């Protein structure tokens, strides 16, 4: 199971987390987020990252041209779309040469069949907790709901993950391709707890 650490915005903290070698690092390019990274994270800084770490840019209801421009400037590997983006826009970004993660906000009323419209245009899905913000709400949804997901598209599990509740991931079926951690591993918004992330990576490695 892969690990994505999202919401990086402090340069030194980024270097510390990158030294632990997570599979993915996420950078939020949505101005409405308290983890908005543009201005603190530079293309030169991302160029220092180990080649094994894939760089993910997170966008919310942004124009395709803007997303592609930023993605090329920062040499991102994947684009995560966390708003109301259409399958058509996902395909446009995929055609531009980037892998696409489409995020869905999940609650008891979420219809997993809605993901079928996106299967051809997305490489991955991400299931996060429906809340007031576009991600980073810090609360998990009921993982029992995942049993209703029948698509072959691999998915990232997000929403309030921490060192305590990841112990229950063994019970989640179908199994996540990756977990996406953010607020549950922070000292403050955008500043990750290095020791806790280290423990997380050790636990997931041992589980595999």
Automatic annotation (TrEMBL):
Q: Which CDD domains match?
A: PRAI
Record keywords, A-Z: Amino-acid biosynthesis, Aromatic amino acid biosynthesis, Isomerase, Tryptophan biosynthesis
Q: Name one GO molecular function term.
A: isomerase activity
**Catalyzes what?**
N-(5-phospho-beta-D-ribosyl)anthranilate = 1-(2-carboxyphenylamino)-1-deoxy-D-ribulose 5-phosphate
Reading the lineage from the top rank, the first entry is Bacteria
**Keyword field contains Iron-sulfur:** no
Q: Does the keyword Isomerase apply?
A: yes
Q: Which InterPro entries match?
A: Aldolase_TIM, PRAI_dom, RibuloseP-bd_barrel, TrpF_fam
Its Enzyme Commission number?
5.3.1.24
What protein is this chain from? N-(5'-phosphoribosyl)anthranilate isomerase
């Amino acid at each position: 199971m892969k690990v994505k650490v999202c919401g990086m915005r402090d340069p030194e903290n980024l270097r510390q987390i990158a030294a632990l070698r997570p599979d993915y690092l996420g950078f939020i390019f949505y101005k409405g987020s308290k983890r908005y990274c543009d201005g603190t994270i530079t293309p030169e800084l991302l160029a220092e990252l180990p080649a094994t770490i894939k760089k993910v840019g997170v966008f919310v209801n942004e124009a395709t041209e803007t997303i592609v421009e930023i993605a090329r400037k920062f040499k991102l590997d994947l684009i995560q779309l966390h708003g109301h983006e259409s399958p058509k826009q996902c395909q446009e970004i995929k055609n531009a040469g980037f892998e696409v993660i489409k995020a869905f906000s999940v609650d008891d009323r979420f219809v997993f069949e809605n993901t079928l419209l996106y299967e051809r245009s997305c490489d991955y899905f991400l299931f996060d907790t429906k809340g007031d913000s576009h991600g980073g709400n810090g609360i998990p949804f009921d993982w029992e709901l995942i049993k209703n997901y029948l698509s072959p598209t691999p998915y990232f599990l997000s929403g309030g993950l921490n060192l305590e509740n990841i112990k229950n991931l063994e019970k989640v079926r179908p199994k996540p391709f990756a977990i996406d951690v953010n607020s549950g591993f922070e000292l403050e918004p955008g500043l990750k707890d290095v020791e806790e992330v280290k423990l997380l990576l050790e636990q997931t490695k041992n589980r595999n």
